[in-house]
């Protein structure tokens, strides 16, 4: 199993490849706000652990194992963003909250959150009812 740090790199590499068709060390460093030397070290580790193939100065590609995990990590991130939006978390707080919790939930918990997001997606009136409860609670808290 990859560590949370490894997950961040795999997820970012997956997103870059999906978006641009490739992932360069400099792009990964910029997106993760780390030094390129840190990226190189992690990429070498991910290569050793068979999540990607890396050739110095030539770039990298995800292995089937890396692609599978990358896709699942992106799903987890997007799902948690959807979930936090549904429960009414302020839009400007969602990304940071997801970054803070995504590595601390089991895949079973993620799957159950997926079920809940699907339920709310299919039952839009439940989201409206939730908003009504939230407004009522906020009004009571102001008193």
From TrEMBL:
* InterPro entries named among the record's database cross-references: DtxR_MntR_Metal-Reg, Fe_dep_repressor, Fe_dep_repressor_sf, HTH_DTXR, HTH_tscrpt_reg_MntR, Iron_dep_repressor, WH-like_DNA-bd_sf, WH_DNA-bd_sf
Name where it mostly resides.
cytoplasm
Query: Binding residues for Mn(2+) 2, per the UniProt record?
Result: 11, 77, 99, 102
Q: Where in the cell is it found?
A: Cytoplasm
> Keyword Transmembrane helix, does the record have it?
no
List GO molecular-function terms, semicolon-separated. Answer: DNA binding; DNA-binding transcription factor activity; manganese ion binding; protein dimerization activity
- Keywords in UniProt for this one? Activator, Cytoplasm, DNA-binding, Manganese, Metal-binding, Repressor, Transcription, Transcription regulation
Q: Where does Mn(2+) 1 bind?
A: 8, 99, 102-103
Q: Where is the HTH dtxR-type domain?
A: 1-63
Q: Please give the Pfam families that the UniProt record associates with this protein.
A: Fe_dep_repr_C, Fe_dep_repress
Give the highest taxon in the source lineage. Answer: Bacteria
Self-association and partners: Homodimer.
| Protein role | Central regulator of manganese homeostasis.
Please give the PANTHER family that the UniProt record associates with this protein.
IRON (METAL) DEPENDENT REPRESSOR, DTXR FAMILY, TRANSCRIPTIONAL REGULATOR MNTR
HAMAP family for this protein: HTH_MntR
Q: Name the family the entry cites.
A: Belongs to the DtxR/MntR family.
Protein name as annotated: HTH-type transcriptional regulator MntR
Q: Which organism is it from?
A: Halobacillus salinus
